[in-house]
Amino acid sequence: MSQLFQFQDTSLESQWRAIILFGKNSATYKFAFAKSLLELIDEEKTRISLQDLSKPFADNLIEHLKKSDKQGNSPSSKFLEACRQNINGELAKEDLYSITERLGFVNVVDAFQNVNGDLIPSIFYEKDFSAGKKDIVITDNLLKLKESFHIKNFDQEVEARWNLVETAWNLNINPNLLEVKYDEESSLFFIEETSFMRRTDITSVRDALNGYQKGKCFFSFQDISIVSGDPNVCQVDHFLPHVNKRAHALEGANINGVWNLVLSDKDINGDKGTRIPEPRFLERLYNRNEFYIESKHPLAETIINQTGKTRDLRRSFLQKHYYLAREQSIQLWQPKVEEKGSF
To answer: What pLDDT, on the 0 to 100 scale, is given for residue 20?
Structure first.
């Protein structure tokens, strides 16, 4: 597990996010499994059969296969081939669900709660394959998680992570040239394939960033929402102000880069304006960026390409541009409200 998650925060929310953000990605099955669990626990089920799981599991994978055909590193998969046959009208849905029950869960049930070789401390389900059963039994941990403020954000976070992983697999771009860009108007991350003059939209910026901030405002550690239409939906903020973009560009930095984007409570963001956060927040930004890099996907490659190949280079990059921003503004800022927390 990410050391930052493992030693600083063992909350149920952080353990769930560790699975989604840092668990092994040899296939995207864990994302379909996570979305299926969220859907079924919303129906208050405490014992779920593989037959129950088969429908949402297969349906979620089909929706992603329609957009991105590569959903794993294995050269072949009988299960994914069955999904493709259904998409092409060659296999009925009921037949697909039966195949899903037999083939879709071979590894994912055992592997889902395993992060970097170890089970998470507070497991969310137990497997019961005794006496002919093929069930998973939901634990109190997952039921408690259902009551969390953050549960409303989890489905979007899983979807964002899934989109980022499959983008990395399906785009034939040299990692050293990869740059995920930020569209401020639409609040989307996208990639431009310059050789084909084509833009690929990946996911919502809010959905992609929220898990790495543990669902908290970057500055105040208040809980934040990423749900569209929520009156308290968070805002995307430039840690170092956008107003100084030309000065940073002259020193080789894109102020719109992923490295400089954070999520903030809207009132906190309004109060900050174009002021520079106090120096202690720079370490927080460094840690948040290292979360991305540990998670191995286009945001990770982008931050490495934008800020440096090593931890020392990335820390020096942030310090350099922080001091550059300080030269442009004499006023430092801190939030009026700040709860305890860490990244």
So the answer is: 94
More confident residue, 333 or 44: 333
Give me the residues paired with residue 237 across strands.
Answer: 262
Output the pLDDT for position 44. 80
Query: Between vectors from CA 81 to CA 77 and to CA 87, what angle results, nearest 5°?
Result: 150
Helix (H) / strand (E) containing 224:
none
pLDDT band at 334 (very low <50, low <70, confident <90, very high): very high
Q: How many C-beta neighbours within 10 Å does residue 268 have?
A: 22
Three-state SS for 136?
A: strand
Record the pTM: 0.91
Cα–Cα distance measured from residue 100 to residue 80, given in angstroms and rounded to the nearest whole number? 9
Question: Looking at the predicted structure, is the pLDDT value of residue 183 above 90?
Answer: yes
Question: Nearest to residue 17, comparing CAs of 185, 209, 257?
Answer: 209
Q: 252: pLDDT confidence band, cut at 50, 70 and 90? A: very high
Q: What is residue 76's predicted lDDT score, i.e. its pLDDT? A: 82
Measured between alpha carbons, how far is 332 from 274 in angstroms, rounded to an integer? 10
Distances (CA, A) of 25 to 176, 208, 234, 270: 21, 17, 29, 38
Beta carbons of 180 and 258 less than 8 angstroms apart? yes
Instruction: Calculate the alpha carbon distances from 84 to 75, 76, 87 in Å.
Output: 14, 12, 5
Q: What DSSP string describes 13-76? A: HHHHHHHHHHS--SBTHHHHHHHHHHHHHTTT-SEEEHHHHHHHHHHHHHHHHTT-S--BSSS-
Both structure tokens of 275: 């002021």
Residue 282: enclosing H or E segment and its boundaries? helix 280-294
